[in-house]
Amino acid sequence: MQNLTITIAVILRILANSFSNVFQKKLTCEKESPYSINFVTYLILTLLCIPFFGKISGGISEIDFWIYSILGGIFGAAGNSFLIKALEKGELSVLGPINAYKSVIGLLGGIIFLKELPSAAGLGGIVLIILGSYLIFDTVEEKFSFALFKRKDIRYRFYALFLTAIEAVFIKKVILITDITTSCISTCIFGAIFSFLILKINKIKIGKINLSHSLSYLLTAICFGLVMITTAYTFSKINVGYALSLFQLSILLNVILGYKIFKEQHLLKKLAGAVIVILGSVAIILY
User: Fold this and answer.
1) Which domain does 32 fall in, by range?
2) Which residues contact 112 (CB under 8 A, 6 or more apart)?
């Protein structure tokens, strides 16, 4: 029974992650500000959390809980802002596979800070991710070159990758101090607080949100919330490495949804590149 529950959680996470990106991009296509999308998503989730406030763990009395929750809120709100801004300017099928570079960054971080030498599988994984990226980026004007980083969508996506990777560390710390429920609630509340500050810093007025897009906002929040909950649940039940390797399957779904919904081109080349990127990511994570 537990294996079935874990399988369902992983499938839900893969679907929710990709469709969250789709709804975020659709809202930007409808001229909604990325900062508004970010704030309203966290606000809706915070309101949905209210019935569960009674289940908050006593661990919130610890000072570490507040430190990690605040830091998680800062990095999470900033990371999601950059992700939505990337989706506003770029293609879903190109930006999705960039997430695989999170495992490369983790490997390089281990080499630099922990003096950990990568295995042959780890090095092979890096080569595969670069090869797969070459095929995917070969479909854009700049090709696979340093000129890519002149594009705002690519830069924003990498900013989001770094920030959300750091956020994950703080979320894990909060889970260890409290529990999954309390961690999800704190993520929503502090995400709402800091995404509101980002909104004000960029001088965006809430009143400019188009109420005709309410359903899209609600669907975005539900998908985003499902990603949060299913990720935390899966990590609590199985090895994080296995979970992360399974989550990479959302890359394929992003390529397909980009083609189907936003009419993005070069489907077969991007699919081939995505498969190679996934294999490289799995090699790094599992070995």
Assistant:
1) 2-114+144-238
2) none
Which residues, in sequence order, are CB contacts of 160 under 8 Å at separation 6+?
79, 80, 81, 82, 83, 86
Confidence (pTM) = 0.90
Look up residue 185 and give its amino acid.
I
Residue 1: other Cβ atoms inside 10 A: 5
Confirm whether 106 is domain-assigned.
yes
Range with the poorest average pLDDT among 72-86, 95-109, 166-180: 95-109
**Is there a contact between 118 and 59 (Cβ–Cβ < 8 Å)?**
no
- List the one residue out of 32, 55, 82 whose CA is nearest residue 210: 32
209-244 pLDDT per residue, tens: 666 788 999 999 999 999 999 988 887 787 766 777
Q: CA-CA distance, 226 to 230, in Å (whole number)?
A: 6
Is residue 18 a contact partner of residue 26, using CB atoms and an 8 Å limit?
no
The domain total for the chain is 1
Domain assignment present for 277: no
